[in-house]
Write a structure and sequence with these properties.
homodimer, Aminopeptidase, Mito_N-acetyltransferase (chains A, B), GNAT_dom (chains A, B), Acyl_CoA_acyltransferase (chains A, B)
């Protein structure tokens, strides 16, 4: 599995990974009827840096890295991660996160913050925690899950 | 003191209130050299609803009200508040917050979230707390204060 910067030629493959996740509406605060262009703009729009995990010419996952705030908050970064349907259990998310932590540190960020981790997304939370993230806050009922109703969201943070 | 929706005719007066706050760089994650147009776009750009507090034709403060997230997070709102230089102690911020809480509830929001309250901004924190906001998380060193160096930022939240 190779992780490399994304190019425009990856747009179709990235959208193919994003679409089922955004349509499901269970993990990201994105309208479930988001269009391809809106989704790619959200994922890849400036100032995001986008990476993809590739194996034998097939994309297995993608992440973006971006400052979480501007001005006095620009030394803390934010990331988003999506893995391709059917790759569960192959460690793609862990590889992406590990790459992101190195890329963020190399870029001079001092910390990484996840603003909104849906509390029912226990698989992701376990990965973040195993890589040193702490839950620094819990937002009560902040996410309307399509099947679970109002569920909490976590703010997670780790120094770099 | 009357609080009313802002119009384009208020832009100069709103910028006059925003400029010293953003130039000081002590409370908002906005580059200190932000331009007038960038600042107004940040404050008043869609989907923000903007209000101003006015007395005898003079603007004393302004706030915006906006969804804090899209999709499954759109039922939680976010606000930003700025008061005019020289109005400290006149209760302008309290009036704006009280108005915002009513406007948010009337618009159907279920909660209000402040994502990034700089911990040294104790005056604001005292006002938010006195109006029912809880600190649900503390982001260590997340803000680079121009005089204090790296200081914490708070995530504050209250149900509506």
């Amino acid at each position: 599995m190779q992780i490399r910067p994304a190019t425009e030629a990856d747009d179709d493959s990235i959208w193919a990974m994003l679409e089922p996740v955004f349509r499901a509406g269970e993990t990201y605060c994105i309208p479930r009827d988001v269009s391809r262009d809106e989704a790619l703009d959200y994922w890849s729009g400036a100032p995001h840096r986008v990476f993809v995990a590739e194996e034998n010419g097939i994309l297995l996952g993608t992440y973006f890295l971006t400052p979480n705030q501007k001005g006095g908050g620009a030394h803390v970064c934010n990331c988003g991660f999506v893995t391709a349907t059917g790759t569960t259990g192959r460690g793609v998310a862990r590889h992406l996160l590990s790459h992101a932590l190195h890329a963020a540190k190399a870029a001079g960020y001092r910390a990484m913050q996840f603003n909104f981790v849906v509390a029912t997304n226990t698989r992701a939370i376990a990965i973040w925690e195993s890589h040193g993230f702490n839950t620094i806050g819990r937002l009560p009922g902040a996410f309307l899950h399509p099947r679970e109703g109002y569920v909490d969201a976590l703010v997670m943070y780790r120094a770099l």
